[in-house]
Amino acid sequence: MTDAVIRALSASDAHLFDALPDPLGAREGHRRTRFRPDWKRVALRDGQVVARGAWWGGPDDSEPVNINWFDVAEGEEEAGAELLRSAPWQVELEISLPGGWREKTDLRAGAEARFAAARAAGYELLVERFLYRWTPERGLPERPGRLRFSAEPDDTVFFDALRRIHSVTLDAHALRAIEEGGLDQAAQEELDFFHWCPSPREWWQIAHTPEGDLAGIHIPAHNPSGPTIGFIGVVPEQRGRGYAYDLLAECTHLLVERGAEFISGATDQGNFPMARNFAKAGFPVIRERINFHPAGQAA
Predict the structure, then answer these.
(1) How many CB atoms are closer than 10 A to CB 41?
(2) What is the dihedral of CA 61, 63, 65, 71, to 10 degrees?
(3) Res 296: pLDDT
(4) Which residues of the chain have pLDDT under 50?
(5) CB < 8 Å & 24+ apart, contacts of 192-195
């Protein structure tokens, strides 16, 4: 067998990326994603594409923030691993899969081939997530009316709330940030992401109980692919009252009032309370996502 040749693409040969079959339906999941041709790479063996990866970032980013499309042909795990190893960017890898992929033999085999390639390249599993999508036919979730929502222009208020929220969290990305740099890093990473989103800062809201106590925050946002539930968080002392649903309902209404015709969302599969809230609010699971991170970064 000849060695695989790793090739970065350009506008003139970007069509090579489409030469590999798409058994896991990644293309449908990326209908609204805009990829840069020069951030796409393929592995070829005897002139045939046997692995591909698309690195992705926002329109103003100088480097990609993740890999969110990665495929390998059957038996080509090593070519896929070399594609990842040789890339100039070592960033988080997201593998998007159809819902219930474990129950279908062909989908499971395809997914596990991609996992094997990622691990061979030095990536480690971080978390498995549910991906949601609300559409108008689902109906707007009822607003319980228990909390008082308001805009808050001071970032330090959100920073302090995020520190409190992440002091007791199930979120794998937040836990990794805490392990690396404590609660301050976890809170700052969230703020940096919210500011990175191309949606108005004025949308961010804090929520108080009728007695005036802080209950939590919600961030309606747009990422480059469209409207999304950016963040839902309840401070620890207010948990157990179901306020995460109130925040999610308000976030959904606010996005629709600002023109959203669909809304995406995501949560870690181990975050059972938030998964229940998404279901209650009319957000069905449309896909699953497996997040890997380069080895050597804290998990």
Answers:
(1) 23
(2) 120
(3) 65
(4) 298-299
(5) 193/230, 194/158, 194/219, 194/221, 194/230, 194/231
Please give the model's pTM, rounded to 2 decimal places: 0.93
User: Each residue of 198-252: pLDDT tens digit?
Assistant: 999 999 999 999 999 999 999 999 988 899 999 999 999 999 999 999 999 999 9
Place of tokens 């506008």: 11
What pLDDT sits at residue 298? 45
Q: What is the 3-state secondary structure (H, E, C) of the chain?
A: CCCCEEEECCCCCHHHHHHCCCCCCHHHHCCCCCCCHHHEEEEEECCEEEEEEEEECCCCCCCCCEEEEEEECCCCHHHHHHHHHCCCCCCEEEEEEECCHHHCHHHHHHHHHHHHHHHHCCEEEEEEEEEEEECHHHCCCCCCCCCEEEECCCHHHHHHHHHHHHCCCCCHHHHHHHHHHHHHHHHHHHHHHHHHCCCCHHHCEEEECCCCCEEEEEEEEEECCEEEEEEEEECHHHCCCCHHHHHHHHHHHHHHHCCCCCEEEEEECCCHHHHHHHHHCCCCEEEEEEEEEECCCCC
Q: Check: CB of residue 187 under 8 Å from CB of residue 167.
A: no
pLDDT, position 112: 97
- CB burial readout 213-222, b (16+ within 10 A) else e: ebbbbbbbbb
Instruction: Find tokens 């692995």 and name the residue.
Output: 51
User: Nearest-5° angle of CA 93, CA 98, CA 100?
Assistant: 115
Please provide residue 50's backbone torsions phi and psi, each rounded to the nearest 5 degrees: -120, -5
